[in-house]
Amino acid sequence: MKQLIVFIKKEFLQVFRDKRSLLLLFGLPIAQIVLFGFALSNEVKNSKIVVVDYSKDAVTSQIIRKIAASKYFNIEQSMQSADQLQAAFKKGAIKMAVIFPANFALNLQHTGKASMQVIADASDPNVATTVVNYVTQIVNSYNGQLSSLSAQPLQIVPEVQMMYNPQLLGAPNFIPGVMALVLMLVCTMMTSVAIVKEKELGTMEILLVSPFKPLYIIIAKLTPNLFISIINYFIIIILSAVFLDLQVKGSLLLLTFCSILFILTSLSIGLLISIGAKTQQAAMMGSLMGMMLPTMLLTGFLFPVENMPIALQWLANFVPSRWYFIIVKQIMLKGLGIASVWKETLILLGMCVLLFTISLKKFKIRLQ
Amino acid sequence: MQPVIITDKLTKHFGNFIAANELTFEVDKGEIFGFLGANGAGKTTAMRMLCGLLTPSSGKATIAGFDVYKETEKIKRKIGYMSQKFSLYDDLTVSENIRFYSGIYGMNNQQIRTKTAELLDELQLQSEAKTLVRELPLGWKQKLAFSVSIAHDPDIVFLDEPTGGVDPVTRRQFWDLIYHAADKGVTIFVTTHYMDEAEYCNRVSIMVDGVIAALDSPSNLKKQYATDNMEDVFYELARKAKRKAD
C-alpha cells in the first residue's frame, strides 16, 4: 500500500510538472464551452418575421395582432404571396414566416380545425426552435380562448417547417456532446501516453522486475487521470451553468456517478491502447483517430444516430460515448431520474468492466 | 564461495524456436559475471528468465536461493535491474528518482533519506539533487541509473548493456562503480558488446545460437584460443552461429 502511494505521488508530480499538457487538459473543456457558448443565445427578442394572410378574416387578424403585440416579434411586412418569402429567407432578412391559408375562419367553424403554416430559418437551430416555440405558445393560448368561448372544440394547428436544417443540430445538445468528447479524449490520451511513455523510457522493465504489482502500476497510472477528469467534468458543469445558464435539471449525484463510470470506461480504453502502442506518438494517434472520430460521428450530437444507415447505427452501439451522451441529455437537459437511464447506465457499466478486465489481463500477459 | 545463481539445463522455446538451450552455469556471490553473445544469441531471453520476467520451458534455476518457477516475487526483492534503455524518469529530479525507486521497493522514509544522501555523496551529485534528470549529461544519468538499481541493496544486479552509447572515459568510471558494488558483495551479471569490458569481468560466458559456447575467466579463454584479446575469442565463436541476428 505504501508503495502504491509512492507511485501515485510520482504520477501526480509528473502530471503537474508538465505545464503544457496541463494547459491542454484544462484548456480544452474551457475553450469548447466558450466557443459553443458564444454561438448560443438563449433568448431571442425582436425577431423579424413575415405574415402572409390569404384569408384576412376575424380570426387571422386576431392572431396576427397577438403576434405583433409580443416583444419577441417584429412583423417586418405583410406580404401578399408566399413567392416573396424564399427571397426574404435567402437574404436572411426574416427569421420566420407565418402563413394563413384562404378560408381560415371558415374552415375553423365548419370542421373545428384549421391549419396555419409556420416556416423558420433553421440555419441557426437555436433561434429557430425558440421563435417557433414562441409562436406556438401564442397560438395555443388563443386556442384556449377559443375553446372557452365556443361550445364545440375549435383548434388551430401550427404546422411547423424548419428550413435549411430540419434536424436542428447543435443547440442544447452540445453540452452533453462536449462532455462526452472532452472526457473521452482526455482520458484515453492521457492514460495511453502515460503508460507508453514508461515503455519508451525503459522504466517499465524496471517496474516489472521490481516487486511492485502490475495491478498497482495500473491503479497508480489511472488515479491522477481520474482526478483530473473529474475536475474537468465539474469545470464543464460550472461553466455551462454560469455562462450558458444551462443547469443540471436532474440529480447532480446521479450525473456525477454516470460520468465517473464513463471516465473509468475511457481510462480502460486508454489502457488498452497503451498495451498495443509502442511509441507515445502511436498512442496519441490511436487515441485521436481511434476515439475522436467515432466519438464525434457516432455519438449522436453532430448527426442523429437514428438517421444513419443500419450498419452505422449498429456500430454506434459499441461507442461508449453514445450511451453516455444519452444519459447526460436525459439527466441534465430533461431532468429525468435513474428510471429513464438505467439501461444506458448498465450498458456503460458492462463496457467498463469488460474493457478493464481485458486490459488488465493483457497487461499481465505482457509481463510473462 | 556460495553460488547465488544456479541454473541447470535451463531452456526456453517459443514454439519451435529454442531461444535458450540447456543453459547450465553458476555465479558466485560478489562475482562480476560477463554474459556475452551476438544479437539474437539468446542473452535477453536468458536474463529475463533469471529475473522472473519469463517462465522457463524446462530446466531448473535458483536465484539467491529462490526458485524461478515458484518464487519469482521473492526473487524480485533480491535483485536489481538496469536495462539497455536509459531507465530513469527524466521529468523528475535526481532525488525524486532515488526516492521513487527506493519507495517501490518498500523502503521507509528514514531509509530513503539515508540512502539518498549516501548515493548523492558517492556520485558527487549533491549540488544536482534538485536538477531534472533530463538536464544531466548521459554519463551521469547512466551512473545514477546504476546506483538507483542497487539502492535497495539487492544480492544480484542484472545489467543489460548498461554502457551503450557512452564514451570510454565514462565507461571506465561506470566500471569503477561496478567494482565498488562487487566489493560490497553484490553479484554483478552484465551483458555487453564491448570486449574491453569483457576483460573487466571475473568470468565471461559467450552464447552462440542459444547455447553457452564458452565459459571461463578472460585469461583462460584467451589462452584456450591462443590469442591476446577477447575480441578474437568472441569472433572465433560467434562466426559459427547459424542463426541470423535480429
Secondary structure layout plus pairing:
The complex is a heterodimer of chains A (368) and B (246).
Chain A: H1 2-17, H2 19-39, E1 47-53, H3 58-69, E2 73-79, H4 83-91, E3 96-100, H5 104-111, E4 113-121, H6 125-149, E5 155-163, H7 174-201, H8 203-209, H9 214-242, H10 252-276, H11 280-298, H12 310-316, H13 320-333, H14 338-367
Parallel strand pairs in A: 1-2, 1-3, 4-5
Antiparallel strand pairs in A: 3-4
Chain B: E1 3-14, E2 17-28, E3 32-37, H1 43-51, E4 58-63, E5 66-67, H2 72-78, E6 79-82, H3 94-104, H4 109-123, H5 138-149, E7 156-160, H6 168-183, E8 187-191, H7 195-200, E9 203-208, E10 211-216, H8 218-224, H9 230-238
Parallel strand pairs in B: 3-8, 3-9, 6-7, 7-8
Antiparallel strand pairs in B: 1-2, 1-4, 4-5, 9-10
Helix pairs in contact in B: 3-4, 5-6
Question: Could you characterize the architecture of this molecule?
Answer:
The complex is a heterodimer of chains A (368) and B (246). Chain A has helices at 2-17, 19-39, 58-69, 83-91, 104-111, 125-149, 174-201, 203-209, 214-242, 252-276, 280-298, 310-316, 320-333, 338-367, and strands at residues 47-53, 73-79, 96-100, 113-121, 155-163. Chain A is α/β, with parallel strands linked by helices and 368 residues long. Chain A has two domains: 2-39 and 170-367, no CATH class; 47-163, abc type-2 transporter like fold, CATH 3.40.1710.10. Chain A has a five-stranded mixed sheet, with helices on both faces. Chain A is 68% helix and 10% strand. Chain B is an alpha/beta fold and 246 residues long. Chain B has a domain at 3-84 and 153-238: Rossmann fold, CATH 3.40.50.300. In chain B, strands 6-7-8-3-9-10 form a six-stranded mixed sheet, with helices on both faces. In chain B, helix 3 (94-104) crosses helix 4 (109-123). The chains are: A alpha/beta (368), B alpha/beta (246). Chain A binds chain B through residues 2-3, 6-7, 10, 13-14, 17-18, 201-203, 205-212, 367-368, and chain B through 51-55, 73, 76-77, 79-92, 96, 99-101, 103-106, 108, 149, 158.
